[in-house]
Amino acid sequence: MDVSIAHASDRGPRGVNITVDDGPDPRWTPQVLDVLREYGVKATFCMVGTQAQAHPDLVKRVVAEGHRLCDHSVSHDTSMDKQSEAYQKQQVLDAERMITEASGGVRPMYYRAPGGAFTPYSRTLAASRGMRPLGWNVDTKDFERPGTDAIVATVQREVANGPTVLFHDAGGDRSQTVEALRRVLPWLTDQGYSFGFPVR
Ligand SMILES: [Zn+2]
């Protein structure tokens, strides 16, 4: 098993991995899914356990449309790396179970620590469950709602630095994210990128 934090794309050097964090959310996840479907893009959804448990229909839709699941902990505690191993274990494994139950048995293939707060312990634990630790290269900062133009510009400026791009489909009004995806996905295709999944 590989306990290192994955960034590369399974589509090679011109691959891009779209990752969507913190959902599922009943308002925004369907809109994100609609845009991804419109452009034929498969993405990786890093789900919060309590959100998955609350919205199993959305988890099932994500899987049915060909996307992959990622464990993003039970409660998105960004101080995870300062907590006990017992706490980390509960956060990682309970979320894995909540997401798997919500999906109808499809297991998350990755683990992304909330806020990137990985520890050697949580990486090893996740990997032992078949969940590759997952990082990112391009933080679109969409969570802070800088405006659609700024989100698009960040992707255009930084995608050459690495293939894994971070978006959010929960945690507030994500209309800028939806609109940015609508512009970024065809732009990436025009630039010769193809869409893949993070390596495992
Ligand atoms: Zn997050």
From TrEMBL:
It holds the Pfam family Polysacc_deac_1. PROSITE patterns: NODB (PS51677). InterPro entries: Glyco_hydro/deAcase_b/a-brl, NODB_dom, Polysacc_deacetylase_ArnD. Residues 1-23 are annotated as: Disordered. Residues 14-196 form the NodB homology domain. PANTHER family: 4-DEOXY-4-FORMAMIDO-L-ARABINOSE-PHOSPHOUNDECAPRENOL DEFORMYLASE ARND-RELATED, GLYCOSYL TRANSFERASE-RELATED. This is Polysaccharide deacetylase family protein. It comes from Streptomyces galbus. The lineage of its organism: Bacteria, Bacillati, Actinomycetota, Actinomycetes, Kitasatosporales.
